[in-house]
From TrEMBL:
<dbReference type="InterPro" id="IPR000551">
    <property type="entry name" value="MerR-type_HTH_dom"/>
</dbReference>
<dbReference type="Pfam" id="PF13411">
    <property type="entry name" value="MerR_1"/>
</dbReference>
<dbReference type="GO" id="GO:0006355">
    <property type="term" value="P:regulation of DNA-templated transcription"/>
</dbReference>
<feature type="region of interest" description="Disordered">
    <location>
        <begin position="75"/>
        <end position="94"/>
    </location>
</feature>
<dbReference type="InterPro" id="IPR009061">
    <property type="entry name" value="DNA-bd_dom_put_sf"/>
</dbReference>
<protein>
    <submittedName>
        <fullName>MerR family transcriptional regulator</fullName>
    </submittedName>
</protein>
<dbReference type="GO" id="GO:0003677">
    <property type="term" value="F:DNA binding"/>
</dbReference>
<feature type="domain" description="HTH merR-type">
    <location>
        <begin position="1"/>
        <end position="66"/>
    </location>
</feature>
Length: 94
């Protein structure tokens, strides 16, 4: 955790707080050390950025959660949308 905190320019306590509110739940090594994925580190960095700008921790976590949900929805929408050449022709007489 110390290395991850150092990479983000924050404290281990900040990362623990994100774990406590269940925003990010890192895997654990056999020795019990937290192991963060790159995605989790990006989330933590975004929360840190919002907190540094004066946003409360709870609000920052909610914002990041909503941003992540929006990104996933956009990706799914793009995946399910037909390519432009397969769009349906306009209906006549409607």
């Amino acid at each position: 955790m110390g290395r991850a905190a150092e990479m983000l320019g924050t404290t281990p306590g900040f990362l623990r707080s994100l774990d406590e509110v269940k925003l990010i739940e890192p895997q654990r090594s056999r020795g019990g050390h937290r192991r963060y994925s790159r995605h989790q580190l990006r989330i933590a960095a975004r929360v840190r950025e919002l907190v540094d700008r004066g946003t409360g921790l709870d609000a920052a976590c909610r914002i990041v959660t909503l941003e992540d949900q929006l990104r996933e929805a956009r990706e799914l929408n793009e995946k399910l949308s037909p390519p432009p050449e397969q769009e349906y022709p306009p209906l006549r007489g409607v």
